[in-house]
Amino acid sequence: MFLLRLKFVLKMNIMKKESNMKKITSVDLFAGVGGMRIALNKAIKKLGLIDECKLYSDLNSYCQKTYNANFPNTPLLEDIKTVKINEINKKIPDHDILLAGFPCQPFSKAGISNRNFLKRSHGFKDKDQGNLFFNILEILNKKKPKAFLLENVQHLKNYDNGNALKLILKLLRKNYYVPEPEVLDAKDFGLAQKRTRIFIVGFLNKNSEFVYPKPTYKKTKVEDFLDLYPNKEYVISDLLWKSHKKRKLRNEKAGKGFGYKMTYPSDKFTRTISSRYGKDGGECLIYRGENKNPRMLSPREAFRLQGFPEKFKIPVKKTYAYQQAGNAVPINVVEKICYKIVSYLLLDENKYINNKKAS
Ligand SMILES: C[S@@+](CC[C@H](N)C(=O)[O-])C[C@H]1O[C@@H](n2cnc3c(N)ncnc32)[C@H](O)[C@@H]1O
User: Fold this and answer.
1) pLDDT value at residue 255
2) Topology of the domain covering 222-304
3) Active site residues
4) Are 292 and 337 in contact, with CB atoms under 8 Å apart?
5) Could you tell me which residues are beta bridge partners of residue 153?
6) Ligand 1, closest atom to CA 101?
7) CA 165 to chain centre
8) Could you give the CA distance from residue 106 to residue 78 in angstroms, rounded to a whole number?
9) Cα angle at 19 between 17 and 24, to 5 degrees?
10) Do residues 321 and 302 lie in contact, with contact meaning Cβ atoms separated by under 8 Å?
11) CA gyration radius, the chain
12) Cα–Cα distance, 42 to 44 (Å, whole number)
C-alpha cells in the first residue's frame, strides 16, 4: 500500500514538472537511423525541456528497421519526393525544428567520380538524389518551422565553384536568417574519427548573431572506441589482405591515392568511415600485431566512432549496419549545434515574453 502511494506521488510530481517544461517538436527528414534525432534529444534534455519527434522520413527499409527498433511508434513518411506542394500541410505535421541530413553522394568527391564513371549527372542535376534540397525548401517555406539544421559533405562548399551552396543559401535566406554555414570535424569534438561535414542552420526570427559551437579538442584515442574482446569474424582473410597490399603498391607506383589505411589503437583518430566501409574495410584496418592479418571494425565500433550510445540497437545484418553507421552524423558535433539552436530559440521566446510583459 505504502509503495503504491509512493509510486503515485512520484508520478504526479514528474507530471507536474513536465507540464511546466516546454516541449520542442521536430521532424527528422532523410533520417537514416536517427543520428540527428539522438543529438537533438540529448541537447533538449540537457536544457531541461521535453522532446517530441513528430515524423521521420527515410525510404530505405533497412534504415526503417533500425530506426523503428530504437524509436518505436514514430510516424513514417517513406519517400519525401511523393509529397506534392499542395499536400505538405496534410502530410507534414507542424514542428519547431526541421532536421535534414540530405543525401551527400551527388556532391561528394567519391560520388561525383562514381557518377562520371557511370556517365550519370551529379549535383542538382542528379534526378534521384541531387534535387532533394528543393523538397526540403518547399517544406520549410510551407510549414515555417522556427529553425532548421541541414547537414552534408564538406565538398558541397566547393561543388561547381561554390555556386551550388550559393544557390542553396540564397533560396533559404528568402524566409530565414541563415548565418554562414560551418564546417566542423568530428575529431575536434571528442570522437576518434576524422569526419568533416558542413552544417547549415536557419531561424525564422533573428534575435542575435548565431555562433556555431567551438571545438572541444578533447583528446581522443582510437583504442577507447574499440571492442574489449573483438570477435574473430572481423579479422580479414589472407586473400583480402593480399589484395589490399597489392592495390596499395599499385596505387603508390601510379602516384594516386594510398589504398588501405592501417589504424593503430594508439592513433588519435581513424579516417572517415564511409557507407562503403563494409566492402573491404580499406579506410580503417585495425592493427593486431606483427605478421597478423588486421581486422575490420565491428558495426558497434563503427557506430561508437560516430558517438552512438551503447544502448543503440543494431537489428540488421552487418553489411547494412556498416552502411548505416557510415551514413550517419557524428552525434557529438550535432548535439553541440542543437544545444545552440534550442538556446537561440529560448532566447527568442524570452524576449517575446518580456516584450509582452512590458507592453
Ligand atoms: C546521409 S543519410 C542521413 C543520415 C541521418 N541524417 C543520420 O543522422 O543518421 C541520407 C538518407 O536519406 C535517405 N533518402 C534518400 N532519398 C530519400 C527520399 N527521396 N526520401 C526519404 N529518404 C531518402 C537515404 O535512405 C539515407 O538513409
Assistant:
1) 79
2) DNA Methylase; Chain A, domain 2 (3.90.120)
3) 104
4) no
5) 197
6) 6
7) 19
8) 20
9) 110
10) yes
11) 22
12) 6
Residue 103 CA to ligand 1 centre (angstroms): 6
Cell of 78: 517513406
Atom number of ligand 1 nearest to Cα 102: 10
Report which residue type is found at 281.
Answer: G
What is the residue with the minimal CA distance to atom 18 of ligand 1? Answer: 79
- All three cell numbers of 303, joined, read 557506430
Extract the C-alpha cell encoding 63: 534504415
- Give the model's pLDDT for residue 12: 37
**Helix locations, the chain, DSSP H:** 2-20, 35-46, 61-70, 88-91, 109-117, 132-143, 163-172, 238-254, 277-280, 299-304, 318-327, 331-358
**Per-residue confidence (pLDDT) for residue 252, from 0 to 100:** 85
Protein residues whose CB sits closer than 6 Å to any atom of ligand 1: 30-33, 35-36, 57-60, 63, 79-81, 101, 103-104, 129, 132, 327-329
pLDDT averages per 10-residue partition of the chain, 359 residues: 55 44 92 98 96 97 98 97 95 97 70 62 65 93 97 88 91 97 98 97 94 97 97 97 93 82 98 95 96 97 98 98 97 98 86 57
The whole-number pLDDT of residue 106 equals 61
Report CA(49)–ligand 1 centroid distance (Å).
27
pLDDT for the residue numbered 1:
55
Assess if CATH 3.40.50.720 describes domain 20-216+330-353: no
- 20-216+330-353 and 222-304: identical CATH topology: no
What pLDDT score does 352 carry? 54
pTM score of the predicted model: 0.89
Q: Identify residue 149 by its one-letter amino acid code.
A: L
- Which atom of ligand 1 is the closest one to the Cα of 36? 8
Q: 184: which 3 cell numbers?
A: 566542423
For the chain, the domains span: 20-216+330-353, 222-304
Distance 117 CA to ligand 1 centre (A): 23
8 Å CB contact between 33 and 55: no
Mutate to test the pocket of ligand 1, among 30, 37, 68, 274 (most ligand atoms within 8 A of CB): 30
Q: Which amino acid is at 206?
A: K
| Dist CA 177 CA 202 (whole Å) | 5
User: In this structure, are strands 196-203 and 147-153 parallel, antiparallel, or unpaired?
Assistant: antiparallel
